[in-house]
């Protein structure tokens, strides 16, 4: 390799590495083989069985972000979640078919309410705690227009500063405690939070996973577990 090639490689890796990471993350999907994620992301840093299921969670550490893949015993990625902890790392993800109204989320930029045209179609999955994980997500099953996948976007507290005191206060007041409930149209505090809070995590499942099966994949946190990854 000549000096010119070395300079160009250094320049790309220094100034344009985000574009390469964005493209890589956008082209990965739930339903792919676990081997595809290993090929693109390298070896997982952590591996943990999901309680009361036959699923296993794998955590891949990226440059300012984490990827969680939950696979079945056959090596199929039943879910794929990206958590962007660096505030200037903003991968985008689109979902839904062209014949329907697609959703689109840009991590560290999109608010909860901006992902879908009608955010009342989704449900809220949240928990507020002090020492254990706190989180809040909107969950949406796309049906035919969404390739029969379930999608989620929200705040994973593996990133510093999440989910914040306002969400924690709302969570304690609403006593949601990890449940998944419809968006309450009359809850003005919730609607304001959804309209003003940017999300740091996006997740999608393989087709036909919804309801109870989604809960098996994500009994609590969506995406990497803060308590687990802090051991790294």
Overall description:
This protein is α+β, with helices and mostly antiparallel strands and 232 residues long. The chain has seven helices and eleven strands. It has helices at 3-15, 17-26, 34-41, 165-174, 188-196, 211-217, 226-229; strands at 46-49, 56-61, 65-71, 77-84, 92-95, 103-106, 123-127, 135-141, 150-156, 180-182, 201-205. A nine-stranded antiparallel sheet has the order 1-2-3-4-11-9-8-7-10. A hairpin with a 7-residue loop joins β7 and β8. The mean pLDDT is 88.
Topology:
Layout: H1 3-15, H2 17-26, H3 34-41, E1 46-49, E2 56-61, E3 65-71, E4 77-84, E5 92-95, E6 103-106, E7 123-127, E8 135-141, E9 150-156, H4 165-174, E10 180-182, H5 188-196, E11 201-205, H6 211-217, H7 226-229
Antiparallel strand pairs: 1-2, 2-3, 3-4, 4-11, 5-6, 7-8, 7-10, 8-9, 9-11
**Approximate strand percentage:** 25-35%
What's the helical proportion of residues?
Answer: 25-40%
| pLDDT averaged residue by residue | 88
Number of helices: 7
Which sequence of strands runs across the widest sheet? 1-2-3-4-11-9-8-7-10
- Head-to-tail CA distance between termini: 35 Å
What is the rounded Rg? 18 Å
Counting copies of identical and different chains, the oligomeric state is single chain
Shape: globular
By helix and strand content, what is the structural category?
A: alpha+beta
Q: What is the number of beta strands?
A: 11
SSE ordering: HHHEEEEEEEEEHEHEHH
Characterize the largest beta sheet: strand count, sense, and whether it forms a barrel. 9 strands, antiparallel
> Can you tell me the residue ranges where pLDDT is under 50 for at least 5 consecutive residues?
none
């Amino acid at each position: 390799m000549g000096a010119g090639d070395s300079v160009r490689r250094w320049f790309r890796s220094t100034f344009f590495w985000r574009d390469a990471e964005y493209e890589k993350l956008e082209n990965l999907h739930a339903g792919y083989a676990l081997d595809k994620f290993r090929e693109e992301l390298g070896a997982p840093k952590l591996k943990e069985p999901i309680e009361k299921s036959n699923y296993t969670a794998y955590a891949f550490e990226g440059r300012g972000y984490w990827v969680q893949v939950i696979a079945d015993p056959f090596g199929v990625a039943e879910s794929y979640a990206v958590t962007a902890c660096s505030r200037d790392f903003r991968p985008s993800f689109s979902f839904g078919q062209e014949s329907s109204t697609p959703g689109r989320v840009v991590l560290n930029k999109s608010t909860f309410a901006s992902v879908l045209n009608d955010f009342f179609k989704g449900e809220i999955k949240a928990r507020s705690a002090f020492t254990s994980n706190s989180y809040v997500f909107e969950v949406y099953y796309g049906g035919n227009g969404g390739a029969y996948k379930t999608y989620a976007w929200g705040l994973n507290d593996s990133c510093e500063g999440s989910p914040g005191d306002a969400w924690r206060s709302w969570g304690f007041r609403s006593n949601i405690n990890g449940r998944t409930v419809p968006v309450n149209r009359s809850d003005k505090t919730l609607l304001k939070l959804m309209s003003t809070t940017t999300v740091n995590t996006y997740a999608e499942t393989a087709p036909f996973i919804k309801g109870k099966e989604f809960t098996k994949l994500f009994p609590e946190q969506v995406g990497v577990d803060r308590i687990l990854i802090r051991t790294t």
